[in-house]
Every structure is written in structure tokens, then in C-alpha cells.
UniProtKB/TrEMBL annotation:
<keyword id="KW-0418">Kinase</keyword>
<dbReference type="GO" id="GO:0004674">
    <property type="term" value="F:protein serine/threonine kinase activity"/>
</dbReference>
<protein>
    <submittedName>
        <fullName>Serine/threonine protein kinase</fullName>
    </submittedName>
</protein>
<dbReference type="InterPro" id="IPR011009">
    <property type="entry name" value="Kinase-like_dom_sf"/>
</dbReference>
<dbReference type="Pfam" id="PF00069">
    <property type="entry name" value="Pkinase"/>
</dbReference>
<dbReference type="GO" id="GO:0005524">
    <property type="term" value="F:ATP binding"/>
</dbReference>
<dbReference type="InterPro" id="IPR000719">
    <property type="entry name" value="Prot_kinase_dom"/>
</dbReference>
<keyword id="KW-0808">Transferase</keyword>
<feature type="domain" description="Protein kinase">
    <location>
        <begin position="118"/>
        <end position="385"/>
    </location>
</feature>
<keyword id="KW-0723">Serine/threonine-protein kinase</keyword>
Length: 385
């Protein structure tokens, strides 16, 4: 196991924040304010609750102050913990506004896997084939590590989850460096009605491209120097998948997540991927084929190629830059050479657009160094402190 040069107390704070399913898990179910006449009392109005939540956020930020910790990477983990706190804080504000803050957070939805009892506490979303929940491993009746569970929305969709299991096993079996671009190992279970489920560790320090673009800080798009590290990681990860004759086929802003701390990027939801793509057409595609992130061959039923994934990646980069992925227009602030580079991804003809992810990866590195010199790690954050 890799040893991290971070003070144990900070790692424990980081773990507690990362394990939260609801903001109440960190900030508390009851919020208090200081009353000049009565001392501390429970906040009663939504305005008081927001004020109290802000106060608790400040207290947690003080606990995460990097200046009070030793260790080479303490500043990195402090920053990450604070960013996760802001995400929980924003969700807490939303729960206050809907009147849900402080409500009962327990759930009767429990599963047992390999001796672990897991409580699925929070519905997250529906994919085209499954329902997704956030949950906690129960340890002596208390909430422990956070997990994510993906359950087939109907028994007929088990084949899609079975496909995802096969894909992830193939992509991870050689333990190449690119394995970091795929979801972690998962465990399976069956519901009483026969639906298949997958459980894997939930990484609270990752953000989907949709979440990045919807954030207040990046609603107008990210700078091109940040886009290129995301593209760099995307080409590396999808390039290895293509080398194993596997095409994702379903890349969109929800299915690509990034981690600011180390500039990692992960592709999720491989249930509609095509294995042995040189001879296989895969399972029937389920979803809105008219979404502009998807190439024309997906809509017409023509053969899917590696360039189909690269088309989607090009669209995603235009989107995250604050451009229009439907028309391929990009902000004027984006260097023309970067714009031309991305336009080669999104050509309508699958035969004319870029098709070799690893070759394109090398070309990207050359372009970045031509534009800005030797590459440097640029700090990326989701929220302003």
C-alpha cells in the first residue's frame, strides 16, 4: 500500500468528509446560532439555518488549515478537503431551501455483500439502464466508507451490467498505468426480484464534467490550459481501451469525471461498451441518440469505430471550454491552433476525423509545448475559497 506523506489527523478529517452521503453527516442534523438574549439556540428560519451552516463551514475550514499540519502533501489534502466541504455546503443550502435539511437520513434499503452490510441512503440518478444510489458501509451500527451502487432498472437490463463487469475486468487485468482511468473494482449482488447490482467505492473527490460546467466558478467554461490536461488524460485512457478492442460508445458529460488533486480523469458507465469491436456491434444502444455528443454513426446504426469515441471527446472538450458542442463554436479566447486541433475530432465523417487516440495524444503534447513551453502542473479547483 502506498504511503502518503500526510499527517494522520488530516487524513482522518479528509476521510470523514469524503465519507459523507449527506451534508448533515458533516455539519450536523441540527444547526445552531448565537442569540444575544438566550445564548446558543436551534436555528428556526431558513435564513438562520443558512447563517448557522456558514458558521459550521468556517469551523471545518479551520480544522483543515494546511498551516497546522506537517507532511509533504498536507496542503494538497487540505485543499481537497475544503473543496469537498464546499460541495456539501452547497447541497446543504439546497436542502435548507427545500425544507429537507435535518430530516431522517436512515434507510431500510440494505444489502449484504461479502460480510459487509451496506445501507443505500440516497438515490442519485437514473442511467439509461440502471438506478444509482449512494450508500454507506455499516460498521457496528455506524456509517463508514461511502459506496455507490448501480442496480439494473429492470431484470432485462442485467445484460448491460454483466457487460460492464466484463469490460472493466478486461481493462484492468494487465494492471497498466491507464487502469486509473477506469472505475475501481466492483462487487455484485442480486435483488430479490432478480435485478443485478454493482457496488464500488465512491470517490467524493471526483467531479463530472457536467458538474464542472454547471458550477458557479466555471459556468462560462474553463481556460484552455486546463482543458488540455483533461484531453491528455482522456486520450490516454480511451487509447488503452481501444488497444483492447473496446469502444465506450456512451461518452457524455455525466460519464466523464475528473479529480483536481492529481489531474486524473475517469470514464464511467461502461455498460453499453462494445467488446471485440473489430467483429462485434455490441448490445442495443439505449439512450437519446440525438444528443449532440454522439456521432452520426450511432444515430444511423452504422459500424461504431474508435473515432466514434474521439468524436464524443472532442465535443466534450468544446463543451467544457464554454463553447457550443452543437455547432462546434468555441470562445474567441481559445487559441486558433487549439480550436483547429479539436475540430479534427468532430468531423461528421468517421473516416476523416482523428481515429488513433495514442497518436493524437502525442500530437497534443507537441502542440501544448509549442504553444506554452514545458508542461507544468496547474492547480484546478471547483470553488473559490
Amino acid at each position: 500500500m502506498e504511503m502518503i506523506d500526510v499527517e494522520p489527523k488530516l487524513l482522518e478529517i479528509h476521510r470523514l468528509i469524503a465519507s459523507a452521503v449527506f451534508p448533515e453527516d458533516v455539519f450536523g442534523k441540527k444547526l445552531f446560532i448565537n442569540d444575544d438574549d438566550d445564548g446558543e439556540r436551534v436555528a428556526e428560519t431558513s435564513a438562520e439555518e443558512k447563517e448557522a451552516l456558514s458558521r459550521v463551514l468556517k469551523e471545518w475550514k479551520r480544522k483543515c488549515d494546511p498551516s497546522i499540519f506537517s507532511g509533504k502533501y498536507s496542503d494538497v489534502y487540505s485543499e481537497e478537503a475544503i473543496q469537498m466541504l464546499y460541495r456539501l455546503f452547497n447541497e446543504g443550502i439546497e436542502r435548507i431551501e427545500t425544507g429537507d435539511y435535518g430530516s431522517d437520513l436512515s434507510s431500510d434499503f440494505r444489502i449484504n455483500i461479502g460480510g459487509d452490510e451496506i445501507e443505500l441512503r440516497k438515490y442519485l440518478l437514473d442511467t439509461e439502464t440502471a438506478e444509482v444510489y449512494a450508500g454507506s458501509i455499516l460498521i457496528n451500527g455506524k456509517y463508514g466508507k461511502k459506496v455507490i451502487a448501480k442496480i439494473a432498472s429492470k431484470k432485462e437490463n442485467n445484460r448491460y451490467l454483466e457487460n460492464e463487469i466484463r469490460v472493466l475486468r478486461i481493462l484492468s487485468e494487465e494492471q497498466k498505468s491507464q487502469v486509473k482511468h477506469y472505475p475501481p473494482e466492483n462487487k455484485t449482488f442480486k435483488m430479490s426480484d432478480g435485478r443485478l447490482g454493482l457496488v464500488m467505492e465512491y470517490h467524493a473527490d471526483f467531479y463530472s464534467l457536467e458538474e464542472v460546467k454547471d458550477s458557479e466558478k466555471w459556468k462560462n467554461g474553463i481556460p484552455e490550459k486546463h482543458m488540455v490536461w483533461m484531453l491528455n488524460r482522456a486520450l490516454s485512457g480511451i487509447g488503452y481501451a481501444h488497444s483492447r478492442n473496446t469502444i465506450h460508445r456512451n461518452l457524455n458529460p455525466q460519464n466523464v469525471i475528473i479529480r483536481p488533486r492529481d489531474h486524473n480523469l475517469v470514464f464511467t458507465n461502461w455498460d453499453q461498451a462494445i467488446l471485440n469491436a473489430h467483429v462485434n456491434s455490441g448490445l442495443e444502444f439505449v439512450g437519446d441518440k440525438d444528443e449532440y455528443f454522439y456521432p452520426s454513426e450511432l444515430k444511423t446504426g452504422d459500424k461504431i469505430l474508435p473515432s466514434s469515441d474521439l468524436f464524443a471527446i472532442g465535443k466534450l472538450m468544446i463543451y467544457i471550454l464554454g463553447g457550443n458542442p452543437e455547432t462546434n463554436e468555441m470562445p474567441d479566447s481559445v487559441d486558433p491552433r487549439i480550436q483547429n486541433f479539436l475540430k479534427a475530432f468532430v468531423m461528421e465523417s468517421k473516416w476523416q476525423r482523428v481515429s488513433d487516440a495514442w497518436k493524437t495524444h502525442g500530437e497534443l503534447i507537441e502542440l501544448v509545448e509549442d504553444l506554452w513551453g514545458k508542461r507544468k502542473f496547474l492547480k484546478f479547483s471547483m470553488y473559490n475559497k
